[in-house]
Write a structure and sequence with these properties.
Length: about 200
């Protein structure tokens, strides 16, 4: 993994992906992600599906402005394929409300990119970098009905720690990742209730 720091964000490079700051000219590809109903329905905090290019540009402007105020390692990244420079998703390391004590790791991919290992590669790059910045643990929050996301975070080595209504006013499953959890040979952790 390669790391490059710019004035407002850190660019991370893995084998097939570059995680970089969002740009306004990413709006069309971002709309394919955040405008897709199968992505938007699972977002936490709850966010309406982005309906058009103008709304996506406005949202990107907001994210870019917010990034400039976040304290490292927090941020938002566009996930770009290295081979063709296509934006295939977005990733976050963001403080979780209400106290901003916990740091959330998350990603959203264009559904046409699901099943290609990009979520795993993104998780490993972001988590490795965050742990290198002194973060002790990261959390993913998943809606209980989103069994696909729950399975994905478990495949990334995250351990289910419970359910809570603490974040975003939603009932969510909470998964934790620590440095040792990045080791794929480590034993599996607890399964959430009704885990298939």
């Amino acid at each position: 993994m390669t790391i490059a720091v710019t004035a407002t964000t850190t660019t991370l490079t893995s084998e097939r992906l570059t995680l970089r700051a969002w740009r306004l000219d990413d709006a069309q590809e971002a709309l394919r992600i955040y405008g897709h109903p199968e992505v938007a329905r699972w977002l936490s905090p709850a966010m309406d599906r982005v309906h058009d290019l103008a709304a996506m540009r406005l949202l990107l402007q907001q994210w870019i402005a917010e990034d400039s105020r976040l304290v490292s390692p927090a941020g938002r990244w566009a996930i770009e394929r290295a081979d063709d420079l296509r934006v295939v998703g977005g990733a976050v390391l963001l403080p979780l409300p209400p106290g901003d004590e916990d740091l959330e790791i998350g990603w959203q991919l264009n559904p046409s990119m699901w099943g290609k290992g990009y979520a795993s590669e993104t998780t490993f790059a972001l988590a490795s970098w965050a742990f290198g910045q002194g973060v002790g643990e990261l959390f993913a929050v998943v809606r209980p009905e989103n069994t696909r996301a729950a399975a994905t975070v478990r495949q990334h080595g995250m351990h289910w720690v419970g359910e809570t209504g603490k974040y975003f006013g939603l009932e969510l499953q909470v998964f934790r990742l620590r440095t040792a959890d990045l080791d794929r040979t480590a034993p599996a952790g607890h399964q959430p209730p009704n885990y298939a």
